[in-house]
Task: inverse folding
């Protein structure tokens, strides 16, 4: 006949392996109770064990009695000289030691995973955000997390989405009309697109606002397909005949500005990217009537995987008073 204190053999499953454990049996004590029992065994005193684990002696006594009721066996012989483990208590203490050691190993492993996650941060950002907003955020992040190595990959909004979906980035920032498929996101800021020309361009001497149809019909210096700027402009002018064939199609904000400054033609860019050029009058803003050229800037991440660690901290640094979560 088997001992009542020997763990029951779960027996083989139908497939020949160990029977799956769906939940812990109700008679298994919690880790805190096991740690207390180990401390009693180590000190030979319930009072010293209570101090060791940071609880009162009555609380410790109550917890041991609750553990005894749960297991259905006496664990301690109590006397004025201290507390001594019963034979059953010695056996349970040995089992408890293995469980606590396994829990400590589990916790150490989880901490190692967190340390590895926190040691680096891969950010993918669309051009405007990468050039004009990200540097300040990363400087602030470094003050909070000096040991985190950060890499920044700049590209258009479509490329940012692809990097996130491929697992090549932990957090992304995009400028398009909505959250890309397969991602979740939150609005972090708002932005306005501006039509600008060189001071020598005929539009710079206009006394009337540009109409949406005029803008749509004019060959422009544009960002490439896939950029957030191009997405917003395409959508805004679709009802006004759609964009004419581009005068030039360039893949960087700096290149677009340079071409416009040279007098090649008008361009449309974020006002975030034009502050210096407009202040120095190297470029002139042209007002446009009857069309909304505004957009939301978003932080994005793979759907169902809310940012954690350094990614969560960076996201908190980008918080905007009027931003809110959700899909665009």
Result:
């Amino acid at each position: 006949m088997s001992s009542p204190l020997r763990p029951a053999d779960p027996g083989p499953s139908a497939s020949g392996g160990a029977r799956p454990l769906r939940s812990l049996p109700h008679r298994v004590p919690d880790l805190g109770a096991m740690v207390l029992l180990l401390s009693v065994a180590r000190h030979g005193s319930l009072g010293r064990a209570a101090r060791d684990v940071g609880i009162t002696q009555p609380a410790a006594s109550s917890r041991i009695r609750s553990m005894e009721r749960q297991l259905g066996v006496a664990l301690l012989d109590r006397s004025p000289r201290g507390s001594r483990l019963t034979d059953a208590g010695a056996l349970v203490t040995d089992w408890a030691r293995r469980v606590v050691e396994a829990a400590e190993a589990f916790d150490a492993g989880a901490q190692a995973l967190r340390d590895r996650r926190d040691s680096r941060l891969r950010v993918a950002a669309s051009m405007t955000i990468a050039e004009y907003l990200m540097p300040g955020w990363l400087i602030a992040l470094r003050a909070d997390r000096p040991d985190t190595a950060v890499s920044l990959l700049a590209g258009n909004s479509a490329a940012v989405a692809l990097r996130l979906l491929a697992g090549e980035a932990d957090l992304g920032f995009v400028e398009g009309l909505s959250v890309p498929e397969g991602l979740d996101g939150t609005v972090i800021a708002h932005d306005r697109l501006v039509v600008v020309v060189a001071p020598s361009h005929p539009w710079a001497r206009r006394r009337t606002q540009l109409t949406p149809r005029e803008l749509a019909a004019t060959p422009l210096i544009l960002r490439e397909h896939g950029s957030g700027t191009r997405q917003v402009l395409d959508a805004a002018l679709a009802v006004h005949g759609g964009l004419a064939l581009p005068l030039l199609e360039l893949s960087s904000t700096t290149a677009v500005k340079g071409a416009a400054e040279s007098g090649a033609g008008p361009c449309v860019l974020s006002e975030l990217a034009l502050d210096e050029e407009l202040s120095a009058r190297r470029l002139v803003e042209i007002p446009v009537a009857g069309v909304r050229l505004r957009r939301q800037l978003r932080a994005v991440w793979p759907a169902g995987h809310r940012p954690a660690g350094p990614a969560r901290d960076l996201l908190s640094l980008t918080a905007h008073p009027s931003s809110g979560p959700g899909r665009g």
